[in-house]
Every structure is written in C-alpha cells, then in structure tokens.
Amino acid sequence: MSDPSSVPARLHRFAHSEEFQHVVLGAIIASAMLSGLEAFPAAQGDWRWLCVWAERALLTVFVVELLIRLGAHWPKPWRYFDSAWAVFDFVLVALMFLPSAHFLATLRLVRLLRILRLIVPLHESDVVKRKNAELEQAYHALEAEKERSEHLLLNILPRLIAERLKQKQAVIADHFETVSVLFVDIVGFTQLSQKTTPEAVVSMLNDIFTRFDVLTERYGLEKIKTIGDCYMVTAGVPEARTDHAHAIAQMALDLRDEIESFNADHGSQLAVRIGFHSGPVVAGVIGRKKFIFDIWGDTVNTASRMESTGQPGKIQVTRETFERLWDDFVFVPHGVMHVKGKGDMETFFLERRRVAEAA
User: Fold this and answer.
1) Same domain, yes or no: 180 and 86
2) Residues 95 and 188 in one domain
C-alpha cells in the first residue's frame, strides 16, 4: 500500500477531487467558446491576439491535467491507460495540439468530446457519491443497532463475560477464591402487592430495584439477578478485588437508607432484610438462548441463609465476614443459631461504620 503522504498519492487525491474536475471542465468550456469565435473571424476583431493567448493557456491547462493524472500513477504511469476512458482522454488532448487553421472542424469536435468526456465521469461521480452516502447511512444505522445490541447485552452480562461470549468461547466458567455475596429481601412487599394493581406493583418494584442498581454501580458491584422481590449482588466477580467485603458492607448500609427514602416518597412501611457472606464461588454462563451469568457454591447458599434467617431492618453476617470487617464497622453479636444445611453458626448484625462512630 502506497504512503498516503507521498507525491503520487497526493496527486491521485487531487486528480479525483471535485475542485480539479470543475477547473478542467471550466477550461474545456472556455476552449469550446474560443472554437465558436474561430467560426466567426469578424467577431474577433481586435481581440484576436487575446484569443490566441487564451488558446495557448488552455492547452497548457490540458497538458498539466494529463501530467497530473500520469503522475498519480507514478512510478508506473502507463497504468493510467488501463482504462479506455484514459486512452480516449490522451488522444483528445493530443488532437487539441493540431493547428486550428487547418483542422478547425476536428478541433471543434474534439472540444465537444472533451466536454462530454468530463461530464460523464462527473455524472458517475455524483452516482458514486449518492451510493457512498447511502452506504454511509446504512453503516451508521448498523453501528447504532450494534450499539443498542451491545447495550442490551451488557444489561444481561458483565462486560468481561460479554467479550468472552462474543469470542465464541464454548464454556465460560471461573473459580473465585474469595468474594462477597449479598441477598436483600423487601419485607412487606408481598402483602402490599395484594392490595394494589399489577401496574402499581411493577412500578414500585422497578423504583426500588432501580435505586438498588444505582448503589450497585456506585460501588462497582455485579448484580446477579432478582427473584421476585429479592435482589442478589456480589463483589469480586467477574473481576477479583481485595475490598469485596467492605464494598458489600457499605452497600448493605445504604440499602437500609434507600428503603427509608422510598417509604418517605411513597408513604409505605417497607423494610429490608439483608444477609451476606464471604468465601469462594464458581461463576459462569448457562443456557443457550436465554443465557444468564450466575454464581454457585456454599458461599451463595450461606449468604441466602443469612438473609432468610435475619430480621427486618437488620444486616446479618457470618463470623467469617465479621472477622474481615470488624476493624472498620460496628457489629452486634446475634449469638449462635441453627441454620438449615449448615448446622449451628455464630452470626452478627452489622450496624454502621466505625468512622461514623469516631466522628
């Protein structure tokens, strides 16, 4: 591929520019007008000398035009003649050097042919421009559709997982040694939904979960899914992070504040029951058509138990999570409780950040 900054490349762009085509067309029209004056010598009068110089100037323009077109194909100028139009153009320019006194009829015909020769590619250029405009419009429409599809995909999958899926990776499954998983259930929403219309139920749930989504994005967490009025989120997946427990703890505290804000806006009396746990998980994509990104493992089950055995307005965590956070957060012991599938477990209620207490 030739260098775009080289002289032949620049000449090629100039030779195909609309401005250059218009200059040549103007020269040809002027030459044709001179041919008309030659048909009426009496009309030239004292201006014949000007006509002669104009004729020479125009011939110079045509020679320069031909040299530019040949230079655009340098170092193989003969490739310019690959086109039948180019050969025709060269013959026309050569014929224009015939003495007009002896070949007046031929010169007039040549000038008319030169006009037609340039008008045809200009028309072709307009057609090409229209086609290019249509292609560009179609390209932009395709890009817009691609962007919308990309946005929809990222609403379903994390960006890193979406990129791997687009690369047609057969199985997407990863092990994460330590992450934090949080479940939050909206206490009282089921009873409230039985007293209102389906539209109002969906609208309220959408409002609540939208508020939760804002917090998820604020702390760089990954929303996994919603199940009814239960919301599941994780930190440390699909990108590992050392502060996963701190990020989930801060979101848990903000979730309580957010539901209070919702109650104030809607005059409701909802509460959240929150539980989270830290540990290893397996993450991956399942399904072929309605695929989802999900996580599995004992950590997920334990986090779910922390939520379901908790209390409204409380944030229940395991001892493993408590030991990660007690330096920065205030906890209240909840004692030892029996957890289905886990046996007896010591749990704690997260209250607030220690920095708030020090302030």
Assistant:
1) no
2) no
Confidence check: pLDDT of 59 > 60:
yes
Asked whether the bond before 75 is cis by omega within 30 degrees of 0, the reply is yes
Give the domain extent around 11.
7-135
Q: Where are the alpha helices (DSSP H) in the chain?
A: 7-15, 18-38, 41-44, 48-71, 84-95, 104-156, 159-166, 189-193, 198-218, 244-266, 298-308, 319-325, 354-358
Confidence (pTM)? 0.59
| Strands 292-296, 271-286: pairing kind | antiparallel
pLDDT at 352: 92
41 is a domain residue = yes
Helix, strand or coil for residue 6?
Answer: coil
Dump the DSSP string for 236-300.
Answer: SSSS--TTHHHHHHHHHHHHHHHHHHHHHHHT---EEEEEEEEEEEEEEEE-SSS-EEEEESHHH
